[in-house]
Request: fold
Amino acid sequence: MRSEDSPTTELIVEGPALDRNIARMAAFFAAGACRLRPHVKAHKTPAIARRQLAAGSCVGLTCATVLEAEAVAGFCDDILIANEIVSEGKCARAAALARGRRVTVAVDSNEGLEALAWAARAARVTIGVLIDLDVGQMRCGVAPGEAALALASRAVGTPGLVLRGVMGYEGHVQPVRDRDERAALARRAMAGLVDTAARLRDAGLPCDIVSAGGTGTFDISGRVAGVTEIQAGSYVLMDTDYGEVGVPFEAAFYVLGTIVSRPAPDRCVADAGHKSTTKDHGLPAVADLEGAVVTSLNDEHAVIAIPPSSRVQIGDRVRLRPSHTDPTVNLHDVLYAVEGERVVEVWPVTARGYRRA
Reply:
């Protein structure tokens, strides 16, 4: 099947570009002490996660949800759930995953520790924990220093759990466009993380893992002494928002739409609205249609401004480059992997949505 024959408003992945992104990231981490733990949340697709692991330089996979962890558990034996989970059902599912593989979960509260520990003891397994630090994003996480040390001490004394280290996501730094500013902010964030790790070790507590980073800071935080792994994810597909940050990866996916209307010489409309691509990081870009700019997204429509001289016609296909990878992929059941104009595989987005407990 040709890509042009695939269903309209489907998500297309350009296989060669995807593989080049994976190889470029793996090569970077092969050259240093820090390793990569690719984040599944960006693509939610086992076929892509397998490619990332096969490329090397990986210590395992990062997941945002228990569902993502379940989707990759069949081929990955070291999984980090880099979000707090506290409900009985989700903790029980994490404990079930800990049978036969190493599972680690982020924690930032006594309640989180107890919920995980109860599930671990009930399942007769051990769950690893990383103390989640707020390194500047002001989302989840305890403060670096004494608060983290106190929670880590409690984790060590909690049956069913094993303390494996600390993590801190400098998410507020990822979109900073200026390289020097981004580097300074990232190093400041990592200083608190690495210092806290040292304090844990000085107190006789285990701290083998110091986990951080993302696509925007992979080559900054990934070269800070003491950081052991980076959780980058978006690099594999690359949206337009990260494209403006200046990281060395290429756009590898797009939404394929059809022009359904040209109501004016300077305007056409495609059948790819925000049910097929998100707009929280900006409107999508139009590929291969000179002078075309998306001006608005509705449920089912992308309104596109075009030069009046444009020869675009009703029925033509159009490629939209999404501005935000993770939630766009989450809208789709499958990804069509292409090489040139040929669809070579159809990959289920196994971990999309929020099913079950």
About this structure: The first helix runs from residue 15 to 30. The longest strand covers residues 253-264.
